[in-house]
Amino acid sequence: MSANESNQPQFAIDTDKLNLWYGTFQALFDVDLQVKRGIITSMIGPSGCGKSTFLRTVNRINERLGYVRTTGEVKVMGENILGPSVELVQVRKQIGMVFQRPNPLPISVRENVLFGYRLHADAGRIPRQEQEDIVESALRQVLLWDKVKDRLDAKATTLSLEEQQKLCIARLLPVKPSVLLMDEPCSALDPKGTEAVEELIWELRGSYTILIVTHNMAQARRASEECIFMLMGKVVEHGDTGDMFVTPKNKETADYIEGRYG
Amino acid sequence: MTKEKVPARQDFDQLNRDWFIDKAVQVLVFLGGISAIVFIIGIFVFISREGLGFIFEDFSFTEFFGSPNWRPTSESNPTYGILALVAGTASVTGLAMLVAIPFSLGAAIYIAEFASGKKREFLKVTVELLAAIPSVVWGFIGLAIMNPIIIQTFNVPVGLNVLNAGVILGLMAAPIMTSIAEDALKAVPDRYREAAEAMGATRWQVIYKVVLPAAKNGLLGAVLLGVGRGFGETMAVLMATGHSINIPTSVFDSVRALTATIAAELGETAVGSPHYEALFTIGIFLFVITFIINLSADLIVRGVRKG
Ligand SMILES: Nc1ncnc2c1ncn2[C@@H]1O[C@H](COP(=O)(O)OP(=O)(O)OP(=O)(O)O)[C@@H](O)[C@H]1O
Ligand SMILES: [Mg+2]
User: Fold this and answer.
1) Class of the A3-257 domain?
2) How far apart are CA B147 and CA A132, in angstroms?
3) B248 touches B276 (CB < 8 A)
4) What is the CATH number of domain B84-306?
5) Closest ligand to residue A26's CA
């Protein structure tokens, strides 16, 4: 994987004085964050503190809403993605996103996996064999191949939620993104599904930089190497997950981890 | 039933009254609902009864559907062939769809996917208003405006023809088709768009790779309703087609529609005469066709809601 080349920047995501407004409501305040490359970083904080907002700024999907304004800098793999000359399509090829509610497209499992690849492939048909290889390899990486290999032409929305969420991860992989953003990817799943998806995320570690939002303290603790705690649109603490859970530096962090927040 | 089980306490009476009101409203709503069906069946029975005499006495299947000669008033040898009328209706409706589909689809995509806020509301209201223009006004536009334009532009002797009526009917059907198509597009959940955009799809790619395929049943329903409208429309086609019996070979031929034939001739026929009954048989035919079209449109649109 190209992640090991030495000329790569140290941080996958690097923000500088990032502020964001929804209309007149400010949701992010001077966020300075450096997310290290190749590891799993979790993001925790009470509801409404701006976790989703931050994630949705990193791939600029927030701009779908016409009334969002952003200032500051967001560098992804060393490049400021808010710059005027940036191509949105390239940004989103670099950065895959997994949503809270599994959202496979209402097309076949196979076409879901190929969707992103087709978007970014240069014009022209993709040979049949290449298609098969892409689909199989992506589904194998998310530990789904054995379960769905006979249902590749079934509508993706007929899969179980757990399978759907894995598929949503699988469809990001063929375009080889460097960063995966996951916004509470397990919150719609039952405990078994959660465990399976967590295991999968752990498997993907190293190949991708993963930033995962979670409300589940145990999950953050189990599944991430670094942890970010946000409160009211600001980053309060960012550090090694183990240290943060054992000896939090801030009182707010301690309170939140111990469940004294809403 | 339930009232026996309720213990006789002081609120017993009140409960009883509510129960009656509830029942009464139920019956009223039921009657209201059933009356629409009763009326439709009643109309169908009436039309059928008037037309049946013809079907059993003078009707020849091959002549009725196979002959282009509609000469009900001929003294010596009246013929009742509706082939030319069917061709007239079909050609006008077909052209109307060629006009209406791009317009309404484009408008629906713009309203559902691009316009927002006030602009969107304004456009929606405008579309509803356009849908409410009476058909005689459209017929007038065909007669007074389109007619000279066609004559001048294409240098043809008459401007009342398939082209005129097709364009008029297309513009007429477009608003309602736009509304339905827009509903179908809006019914596509936003998370599909979001998912596709997050993978790097541009707005157009989202529309043609995700939204249109997901909405295809609803869009097909919109087209079918437009076709139903085209078959059933009377006044505008009566005024804009030229109303002459022809199997058209070009868009500049005048034609006559099934509906227009009924409207124009029914008043001049003797009740109970074969001509009168033949017109009612056309009515039955139209009824069946529009019923089938609307029913399939409805089933298709319903299918969207479920799936
Ligand atoms: N589309 C929007 N328009 C206006 N305000 C919004 C919008 N989305 C989020 N907000 C506001 O921005 C703030 C941050 O929301 P965000 O969704 O990022 O929180 P979160 O940390 O992800 O919360 P949760 O844990 O509930 O998902 C909240 O106060 C929210 O009300
Ligand atoms: Mg959130």
Assistant:
1) alpha beta
2) 59
3) no
4) 1.10.3720.10
5) 1
The alpha carbon of residue A246 is apart from the nearest alpha carbon of chain B, in Å, by 36
Confidence of residue A261 (pLDDT cuts 50, 70, 90): low
For ligand 1, whether the C-beta of A92 sits within 6 Å is: no
pLDDT digits (tens, 9 = 90+) for B164-194: 999 999 999 999 999 999 999 999 999 999 9
Q: Cβ(A80)–Cβ(A142) under 8 Å?
A: no
Strand pairing report for A34-36 and A11-22: antiparallel
CA of A51 to the centre of ligand 2 (A): 6
Neighbours of ion ligand 2 (CB under 5 A): A 52
Give the residue numbers in A contacting B (CB under 8 Å), as ranges. Answer: 59, 61, 64, 66, 88-93, 96-97, 99, 101, 103-107, 115-116, 119-120, 168, 171-172, 175
**Can you tell me the distance from the alpha carbon of B130 to that of B110, in angstroms, rounded to the nearest whole number?**
17
From the CA of A52, how far away is ligand 1's center (Å)? 7
- pLDDT reported for residue B75: 86
Q: Could you state, in order of their start, the residue ranges of all structural domains in chain B? A: 2-57, 84-306
Residue type present at position B27: V
User: How many angstroms separate the CA atoms of B105 and B220, rounded?
Assistant: 11
Query: Inter-chain contact A116–B197, Cβ cutoff 8 Å?
Result: no
Amino acid at B214: A
The minimal CB distance from B192 to the residues A61, A97, A105 is found for A105
Domain residue spans in chain A? 3-257
ipTM (interface predicted TM):
0.89
Angle, helices B216-232/B162-186, rounded to nearest 10 degrees: 150
Question: What is the tens place of the pLDDT at every residue in B6-63?
Answer: 555 555 555 678 888 889 999 999 999 999 899 989 988 988 888 888 888 778 888 8
Indicate which residue's Cα is closest to atom 2 of ligand 1: A22
pLDDT digits (tens, 9 = 90+) for A98-140: 999 999 999 999 999 999 999 888 777 888 888 899 999 999 9
Q: Which residues of B touch A115 (CB under 8 A)?
A: 196, 199, 209
Q: Are A250 and A237 in contact (CB under 8 A)?
A: yes
